[in-house]
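Hi V.,

You were right to ask for the full record rather than a summary. Here it is.
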Amino acid sequence: MAFPDFHDQKNRSSDTLETEQVQFLFATLPLATVISAVLILVMVAVLDSVISSTVLYGWAIFISLVLTCRFLLSVAFKRCRDAINGKNAHRWLNWFRLGAIAAGIVWGVAGVLLTPEGYSGFKIYISFVVGGLSAGAATTLAVDRITVNSFLFFVLVPHIAFLALEGDRVSLGMTAMMTLFLLFLVVSAGQIRRQFEQGFHLRQQSVANEWRFRQLLESSPIAARIAAEGTRRVVFANSSYLELINAPSLKFDDVVVTNYYPSQEVYDGIMAKVKGGGTVTNELVKLCSPDQNQWTKWVLASYLALEYDNKPAMLGWFYDITDRKLQEERVEKMAYHDALTGLPNRILFADRLEQALTTAERDSSLVGLMFFDLDNFKWVNDSHGHHIGDLLIKAVAQRLGNSLRKTDSVARIGGDEFVILLPALSSEQHGIMIGEKIRQALVEPFVFDDLRLKISSSIGLAVYPHHAQDEQKLLKYADTAMYYAKEEGRNCLRVFSEQM
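Predicted structure:
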């Protein structure tokens, strides 16, 4: 990539500064023209009795022509102000300077021709007029040194010279005063101009910094976006962020960030933490599609409050860990679930059993535990192969899930052995009813392509706290009851008793 050299950058900056100067000068011109017109009317009314009508009205006509030309110039500028740029700004600035100098010359003439001899009061009045006019110009014209200094020179110097030539003590005193006033206005205008230029350069630097910041975010492989604090609409986003939300072709200013969180409350909670001075760094956040059905992603998100385009905004950057999160979930599922059926394994079931007994102790309720296995499952494996055996185990797990209440849990703890947790039983008979429902469900034939299998199950039931008060004994007694069911002919349910 080729970068512009320093002189090119400096020239472009100068052109842009000149454009801002022109915009500022022409913005104040209509009001200055109106004020000057009113001032002319007042002067004519005040001086009509002491100044020759030819001189007074001739001057008034001439200054009115100058003001009219300047007003027409401002109208022309207003019509094409949107097209003003570094290429034509200098031309407009020269026209403005010419108009200001012409006005300054005519006002300077007034400081001489319209000062009547022998009337000290009128002399002071004219000094007050040209001084006030110059003070206003020092503010409105200060952004351009040539314009303001030329105007002040042509307005005040002729009047100062006229007062000096008068020779009397009062006139000489006013000469000194007006000279000091001129110097003060020149210095003040210079300070205003420097402040204007400094503000311009600061804005330019801010724009450049913002551009570099955007380029940095755009080139980052990490998804990043900036959202307006009020509307929560994205004001900038890099391509990585648009890919993250599965909208690479979407315009970022069409994105409302809250649409991609599970709920607005989730986003509000994060923003409240940031606004409260808290740090939000690498926080695990769930993002989802606006309809919350198409996709879900997990990210490590960081947020920072900032100002963007002079408005409060929120920067967020997101590291996509969806694959890692899914892998962790798969590993966790493998650790706590049976690989074949997806049911909880012995470890997870033990935890659920412990929680159920704790709740039952607190609520003085019953918990049932059923232990069962399939009858003649070994024959299925030997006759039809382990593939059919696996299909049968998965089908049994599905039927068990369909036969249980939502609060119940089933786990596979061995080849064809399952345990079922029945919390909040109303009675022992309630547990027997659920067990019989399961047994009947498993009696129905299982069909795998052309193969039709009929199996049965032996089920043992133990109830907390009737039969045992801890997990290990409850499991042991349910297992004992299941073996009694097998010994008594299989395809039946037996409840643990002390005689077993």
